[in-house]
């Protein structure tokens, strides 16, 4: 249709854009203010439609403990205007503009691939980000936010990320945020298997934390969560979380608290920890807060016998295989640059074909049955179908509407026409 044709033509004037903050540019206190979840995306869809009508083809947001990024398709001259509008709408104007980074076109595509395969993470090569990226895509897609061009970029990003994992050693000795929490526990406690652990949360991260602890020999593990559902860790081991209302009692029993719940406000406050310390006769407590926004009030670090580590401390905790992972990350970056160059050409060709197909479909509607029969015969024999179609369009007085038909080769034109004419 004419609308489809106009939409595809418009896409050629738009490009992949992104802006965001991460562990390199901001601390956790800023990152927890800028979160793009499902409800935020619903709000932004309506807000951006009103503020920038027909200017943004599609978008999606990614928020993890390391970063929040906003990916979208729009014209190059709009990125900063859209950025400032979103900052205002989400009330994050307190975060300096200098703490954000901006990418567009091929650079944005390369960055997206680096994020999805884990080489731009705080823990270089970590595996959890791939699942988080896929989940963010799934949520946005179910909300109807992902349209043609952005979908092409995301699908290619997932494909390239899988290739990186199989063609480099970036995942040979895989690290994860949950695994680093275990490393920290081992560094602090001589016999971690003798400690009582409380996990806050019931999502995928919480399950990974419990699995890491259990496999390392720590068996005294409990959990608290908003929803009560069995966390199946292995075929023979599971954990049933207690409700959040049991948090005070659970804190009194725990030596190690690892938090990873999704929440907009802290679950564990300074008062609750003070009460727990009193009951414990000031026996030390280790808190590891892996959540963004944070689950634990930062003020608890002021208490004696309390040791608090946030996600921003992860990089300081371990340098395991750091040199090897960094070398593999560089190899992966080179692969990504090459793959992105190929993918950009493929995506451009798909868009060109879609544009020409719509233009040809409109043209064929003006053809008589005799014209169509003639063209159907020519599809099989004519080696220069493009010139023939242009000549026919000139006869119809509509040659201007298909002037760019030559942007794809004659073979592609033949395949498109065959698809448009029945039994061609």
Protein described:
By secondary structure, this protein is an alpha/beta fold. Helix content is 50%, strand content 13%. The chain contains 16 helices and twelve strands. It has helices spanning 2-11, 28-31, 38-51, 79-89, 105-116, 128-142, 148-167, 177-188, 204-215, 247-253, 270-279, 314-317, 322-365, 369-381, 385-396, 410-420, and strands at residues 15-22, 59-63, 67-74, 101-104, 197-200, 221-225, 231-232, 238-239, 242-243, 256-259, 285-289, 306-310. Strands 9-6-5-10-11-12 form a six-stranded parallel β-sheet, with helices on both faces. A four-stranded antiparallel β-sheet has the order 2-3-1-4. A two-stranded antiparallel sheet has the order 7-8. Helix 3 packs across helix 4 (79-89) and helix 5 (105-116) packs across helix 13 (322-365). The model has no long low-confidence stretch (mean pLDDT 88).
